[in-house]
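USER: If only I could read backbone structure tokens as easily as an amino acid sequence. It would mean a lot if you studied the pair and described how this chain folds. Here is the record:
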Amino acid sequence: MRWLDADEERAWRALRRMMIAIQSRTAHDLAAIGLSEADYEVLSTLSERPGRTSTLREQAAKMGWSRSRLSRHATRMETRGLVRREPDPDDGRGCYLVLTEHGMETLEDAAPAHLESVRRHVIDRLSPADLSALESIARKLEEPA
């Protein structure tokens, strides 16, 4: 086993603290407008898809969730009128998630507050060089090892 040296451990702990801080702050700001991070992720990604539609499988993969976890979450979103399900003719067990008009309106109402949150907690606190370095690091780490 290769233990972390002092520099590696400091960097790792700093990364963890940063991820937790940003996630908790932006989640708090979304909660103040009645949405969870998962709600916003589903709404925003569906809004960018052709026909505002995605298979449950594709959406779950994008979010790093199991299909059953996303299905339970989608049920709660359906109850609120944000999405609806339609059968997937290519997958008898699957379905499409479709962004409803109410879901799109909810996203449009939430987007300015969410963008302000992202600016306040991340973007406006970093220089252009910091943002470039952050993007470069993120690209390296998003790929599986």
User: Anything to note?
Assistant: Residues 13 and 85 are 41 Å apart (CA to CA).
